Amino acid sequence: MLGAGIVSEVFDARGQGLPLFDFALCTDRPGRVRTDVGLPLVVEHGLDRLASADLVIALPWADFRTPPAPAVLDALTAAHRRGALVAAHCVGAFALAAAGLLDGRRATTHWRFAGLLAERHPDVTVAPDALYVDEGSVATGAGAAAGFDLCLHLLRREYGATTANAIARDLVLPSHRDGGQAQYLATPVPEDSQDERLSGVLAWAREHLHEPLPVAELARRALMSRRSFARRFAASTGTTPHAWLLGLRLSRAEELLETTDLPVEEIARAVGFGSAAVLRAQFVRRRGVPPRSYRRSFTRTVG
Predict the structure, then answer these.
(1) Which terminus of the chain has fewer Cβ atoms in its 10 Å neighbourhood, N or C?
(2) What is the pLDDT of residue 189?
(3) Quick check: helix, strand or coil at residue 174?
(4) pLDDT reported for residue 301
(5) How far apart are CA 299 and CA 285, in angstroms?
(6) Backbone region of residue 107 per phi and psi (left: phi > 0; alpha: psi in -120 to 50; beta: other values)
(7) Calpha distance 263→78 (Å, rounded)
(8) What is the dihedral of CA 126, 92, 2, 16, to 10 degrees?
(9) Bridge partner list, 107
């Protein structure tokens, strides 16, 4: 039920200048489907609906240890073959693996079942700690609320940061979490004054991206030693200060490329990369395209 709720919320038809998605739930046996929370869900569409979908997301199902019906596997394979982006949330990855769509690729699933996925499908390189893995025409995401991260990543990839951030704000979610971020956090919710200081420092850093922001300075502002700061940061965010800042700077650069006509050199300075060359190198490495190509793909009308 959570998986169905996540995708329906993210791909809701909001209007207000946002993409109008044609969202539908499908199954090989349309009708009343009993969910894991006991509430019945009426699914109107059969597998024929996949024949025209641009994005197909396999959701978790209770009996995921048993491969889906051959008709489901055929429909997933056919959708992928004709060019649809095929993704999976949580143990939905088992359906993609059973269809052979993950062979020779990296993939993730709920950390609790990552070992089982690797055991049953040795041709799949399982990344048990990743929030999501994007392999181009196939993408997989971790369990539970990480479905939001996968969906927002796909939105960012296809429609740009402005659209993904707008929908994230509507859902009161973080706009972007890198796919390599750990699934499980030792202290996901602030528990003491140190975490409160850490939250304050992160908020301050977001407003000062144009500055160098070395870890030593962030630790000083949090009133911690550098080692304690790094340890607390990893426990609270699942990543390193360097990786967090890099992701934040890239996200901000995306927004500026989409919504302004500022020169790339100026954007680089505004987000703390220092020069257009450094921004370009990071963009190519992390986003696969240089900033100017990204701007051409996702430019928005300014004014």
Answers:
(1) C
(2) 39
(3) coil
(4) 40
(5) 21
(6) beta
(7) 43
(8) 90
(9) 126
Residue 240 is which amino acid?
A: T
Structure tokens, 131: 């929030």
Cα of 128 vs its chain's centroid, Å: 15
Angle between helices 241-259 and 276-287 (to 10 degrees): 100
Structure tokens at 277: 């060359």
Q: In sequence order, what are the residues at sequence separation of 6 or more whose Cβ sits closer than 8 angstroms to the Cβ of residue 9?
A: 171
pLDDT at 237: 79
- The residues facing 126 across adjacent strands are 107
The residues, ordered by sequence, that sit 6+ positions from 183 with a Cβ below 8 Å of its Cβ are: 108, 110, 111, 128, 129, 130, 131, 142, 143, 146, 238
Q: Look at strands 132-134 and 125-126 and give their pairing.
A: unpaired
Please write the tens of the pLDDT for every residue from 185-236. Answer: 443 334 445 677 888 899 899 999 999 999 999 999 999 999 999 988 888 8
Beta bridge partners of 134: 139
Hey, which bits of 2-124 come out as E strands?
31-34, 40-43, 55-58, 85-89, 106-107
- In the chain, % of residues over pLDDT 70: 92
As a whole number of angstroms, the distance between CA 151 and CA 244 comes to 20
Q: Is the pTM of this model over 0.85?
A: no
Q: Which of 244, 237, 180 is nearest to 209 (CA)?
A: 244
- Looking at this protein, which amino acid is placed at residue 26? C
Average pLDDT for the chain: 89
Residues 6+ apart with CB under 8 A from 4: 25, 35, 41, 59
